[in-house]
Every structure is written in C-alpha cells, then in structure tokens.
Design goal:
Elements lengths: L1 E5 L8 H15 L3 E6 L4 H4 L6 E4 L9 H16 L5 E5 L14 E4 L5 H6 L5 H21 L2 E4 L2 H11 L4 E2 L6 H4 L4 H7 L6 E6 L8 H11 L6 E6 L4 H13 L6 E5 L3 H10 L2 E4 L8 H7 L5 E3 L6 H7 L3 E2 L3 H10 L1 H18 L2 H17 L1
Helix pairs in contact: 1-16, 8-11
C-alpha cells in the first residue's frame, strides 16, 4: 500500500497537524510508503516526520480566493502523483474537493465540518453567501460520489457529519501523548510568567472567535473579586483582528492585571502550563480543540468545557470534567471543592492513559484504508 496524505497548508503546529505526523510516522513504522501533499510546510512539523516525503504544490496566483487557490493546487498535485499511490487520505476542508474527478480510493479524515459551513452564518455579503453555498453544494456532491470512507473523532462530529452529508462516518478517537503530557514542570511555567500563589485558569488554542477566548475573559471579569490572586493564561497564536478585540475589552474593563497572553508556544511549554494551572477552561464553539482537554487531564487538572465542544459527550459520559456554559459558576464550584475535583482529575488521567492511544488511533485508520482498497 502507498498512501498520499493531502492537507491544505501547515501554517501552525496544532492538533490537525499532529494527527498527520502521528499517522505518517505510524505508516512508516509499518513499512507503508507515504507522502504528504500540501501548499506549505512548517520546519518544526517536517523535522518530526521520520521518513515521509513532503510534496509542496505551489498555489496558482491568478485565482482570487485563497481557498480556491488551495483546491486547485492540491488538485494538480494529486493529478501529478496519482499513479504513484494506491490510496488518498485527505484531511480538512478544502482538501476533499481536490480529488474531483479522480477515481482513486479516498479516505477523508474529517476533523470538523468544512470551514465554509462554520463561516457561512458570519458572511455579510450576499454574493459571498451565494458563492459559498454553491461551493458547499459541490462539496456534498464530491463527498457522496468520490470518497470511499470518512473518519471522525467522536459521536458529536459523527452526528453533524451525517446530518450534513447523509453518510455515516467511522468514529475513531484521537490519541494523546500521555507519557509526554504527564511529565510537565509546573514551577518552570510559574517562574516564567511570575505566577506566585495565583489561582490559574488556562485556555490553550489559537485565539479565534471559534475558540471563544472572549468568554474566558468575561469569566475572569465575574470572578476577580471572588477568587484572590486570579490569573487567566491564554496560550496560542492569535488572529490579529480577534486579538485586537480581546485587548480592547481588557482595556475597557481594566482587566490587564488578570490576563496573560503567551503568544505561540511549543508543546513543551504547553505541557508545563497544564501542570501549573488550577483549572483548564475550554469555552470553545464546535471547531477544533479536541486534544487540549485530554492533554490537561494527563496533568490531573479539573476541566470546564462548553456543551458545544465536540468531545463534551465523552467528558460528560465518563464524568471526568464539567460540561456547562456557566463558566463562572463551574470554576467557583471547583475553587470551593479542590480536593473533590483533584480526584476527578485523577480519574480522568487514568481514563486517558487507558483509552486514548495514538497507536490504536493509527491502526484503526489503517484498517479503514485497507477496507477502502478492497471495496
């Protein structure tokens, strides 16, 4: 078997990128030739790949829209390499559109619904809405007629995928690097950010409207007079426009002493922050962010996640965190009952260690690849 992994662009090293690195390295370990086709690659991602060829396809300059440029670039990349591979494994919108009209066995790792669905409701221009609706209609056609199998990470995404496309996907939970995230240095993080006797609330992830950091800041606003020495740490790269919105709100509400922006940080520093925090807060909307709460559980930390978070059903079912949109109330509950929630964190740590393995995730993906080749 020869597998071509297709991903639009590596511009941050987040969860979706980590999934590809883990999968590519597992295929290599199993003696399966694999390559990654993309329009851009980060050096820090490439250095983590063990023996995977990286194919960079330049985006055509004459097209007006970035998404359209990526679709055509990946399309030409697939066309040029079609005969060298037995199976195509596409990750994230708009990679799935690039396979049209090729009849090659294809498996889609759908980390979340297409970005176009998530942003359609935010679009103000009527013309843009019409164009995006037309692209979504084409997307449904391609998925239904050109993709053999689809993989999602949880029941939440399975339900919304089936509602959108009328197809039932395979559910394969992501893995977590338990050995890595269970070994953080809390004192190192506290020293770097001058966290002395603080009650620390942590949110990890790119600063975007869908990650909803504004709710974390509003939570701090409501709790600052109730919890002494309160600090909110927002760890991640920021979209410029959204970052300006957050900073403006902080200035207007005089919250500067309570909030720390770390900017983009590596996995080692994220690990230390997990161990340094008292509560992991995850008020995100239904886009991305699947790995972070389970990484925090490796450090036995209490979780507060939104009902919209795609893994919220797992967290509620296993009783390993609080699922709510009343974040101040949940954090006060944890603050008043730290021993109880430390025990819940310990149970969550054991659940992650037992149930979320990258080898299991990758082997199940490989089983789907083999099924797609036979069908």
């Amino acid at each position: 078997m020869r597998v071509l992994i297709v991903y639009p662009k590596f511009y941050i090293y987040g969860g979706a990128e980590l999934v590809i690195v883990k999968l590519a390295n597992y295929l290599t370990k199993k003696g399966i030739q694999n390559a990654i086709l993309t329009t851009s690659m980060l050096p820090e991602v490439e250095k983590d790949l063990e023996a995977t060829e990286v194919i960079i396809q330049e985006k055509p300059r004459i097209l007006p829209w970035t998404g359209l440029k990526e679709i055509f670039a990946l399309h030409y990349g697939i066309k040029n390499n079609l005969n060298d591979f037995d199976l195509i494994n596409v990750h994230n919108y708009p990679a799935e559109l690039s396979i049209f009209p090729f009849r090659k066995p294809t498996v889609w790792m759908c980390n979340e619904p297409p970005e176009i669905v998530l942003h359609l409701s935010l679009e103000k221009s009527l013309l843009s809405k019409l164009v995006k609706r037309a692209i979504l209609k084409f997307d449904k056609f391609v998925v239904r007629h050109y993709i053999k199998n689809v993989i999602v990470a949880d029941e939440f995404n399975a339900k919304r995928f089936e509602k959108l496309y009328g197809l039932k996907p395979e559910i394969i939970n992501y893995g977590i690097d338990y050995e890595f995230f269970s070994q953080g240095d809390s004192e190192k993080a506290k020293k770097k950010y001058s966290l002395n006797n603080n009650f620390i609330i942590l949110q990890v992830g790119m600063l975007t409207p869908f990650k909803n950091q504004i709710e974390s800041i509003k939570t701090i606003e409501k709790l600052k007079d109730k919890i002494p020495h309160l600090k909110l740490i927002l760890a991640g790269w920021a979209e410029k426009e959204y970052n300006l919105k957050l900073e403006k709100y902080i200035r207007e509400k005089n919250l500067g002493e309570y909030v720390i922006f770390t900017g983009q940080v590596d996995r080692g520093e994220i690990r230390d922050l997990y161990h340094a925090c008292d509560v992991f807060l995850h008020p995100i909307k239904p886009q991305g962010g699947w790995l972070a709460p389970f990484e925090a559980l490796c450090a036995k930390k209490p979780l507060v996640v939104s009902p919209e978070m795609s893994a919220s059903e797992i967290i509620k079912r296993e009783k390993i965190g609080i699922v709510t949109d009343n974040y101040p109330e949940a954090i006060m509950e944890i603050y008043r009952n730290m021993n109880r929630y430390f025990e819940i964190g310990e149970r969550g740590e054991e659940w992650v260690k037992t149930n979320l393995s990258w080898d299991v995730f990758c082997q199940k993906n490989l089983n789907v690849f083999q099924k797609a080749l036979k069908s």
